[in-house]
């Protein structure tokens, strides 16, 4: 199945670079490019992409407001939105998490990670760079973890899995770490999402940091 992608960034060279990388993949098709949030929402409604790569700081409407509009309740087949950011944007990450972002990627992460992020989002997963997971979420909680204890409904195996998600590991890497199958990882993730009322693994990672289940030491 071909993955239909929308690229939203106010820098033409960034859009062109992303488009060139993605167009080289047989299973990815760039269907639209937007220079701001307003245009991104319009093009998403017109072209119905599977994945939207969304910059944060754009004119007219920023990427976080565009994310909110694209994933609002009641939307039929909303795109999976991968926020493309820099560490300077970390003050906005909490809002992106609450609005249902499906991943985080640095603009200078490189072609391979860009392609992997698109494929992960399209398959219902979320690629969060380990560097972003540790540094951004740690900054968000620099004042210290919330006083609440880790969720008592989580089993020891689920807590172990959540710690690995918060470190940015993929399902395959988690399976290797815990010596279980990828299918079992997905089952555990589904159960954890239900227990934590989390929409995706990004929100699971944020919860792990906020609850104190993980800290800057990993």
Automatic annotation (TrEMBL):
GO terms for molecular function: DNA binding. Residues 4-122 form the Response regulatory domain. CDD domains: LuxR_C_like (cd06170), REC_NarL-like (cd17535). PROSITE patterns: HTH_LUXR_1, HTH_LUXR_2, RESPONSE_REGULATORY. Gene3D superfamilies: 3.40.50.2300. It comes from the Bacteria. PANTHER family: TRANSCRIPTIONAL REGULATORY PROTEIN NARL-RELATED, TWO-COMPONENT RESPONSE REGULATOR. This is DNA-binding response regulator.
């Amino acid at each position: 199945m071909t993955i239909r992608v929308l690229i939203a960034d106010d820098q033409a060279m960034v859009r062109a670079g992303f488009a060139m990388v993605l167009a080289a993949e047989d299973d990815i098709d760039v269907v639209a490019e937007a220079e701001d949030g307003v245009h991104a929402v319009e093009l998403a409604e017109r072209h119905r992409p599977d994945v939207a790569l969304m910059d944060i700081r754009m004119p007219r409407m920023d990427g976080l407001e565009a994310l909110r509009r694209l994933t609002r309740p009641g939307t039929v087949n909303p795109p999976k939105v991968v926020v493309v950011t820099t560490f300077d944007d970390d003050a906005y990450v909490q809002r992106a998490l609450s609005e249902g972002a499906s991943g985080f990627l640095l603009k200078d992460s490189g072609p391979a990670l860009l392609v992997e992020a698109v494929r992960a989002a399209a398959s219902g997963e979320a690629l969060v760079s380990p560097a972003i997971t540790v540094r951004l979420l740690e900054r968000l909680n620099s004042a210290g973890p919330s006083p609440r204890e880790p969720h008592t409904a989580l089993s020891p195996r689920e807590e172990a899995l959540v710690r690995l998600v918060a470190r940015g590991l993929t399902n395959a890497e988690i399976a290797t770490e815990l010596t279980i199958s990828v299918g079992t990882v997905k089952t555990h993730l589904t159960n954890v999402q239900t227990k934590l009322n989390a929409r995706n693994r990004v929100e699971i990672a944020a919860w792990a940091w906020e609850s104190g289940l993980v800290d800057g030491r990993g």
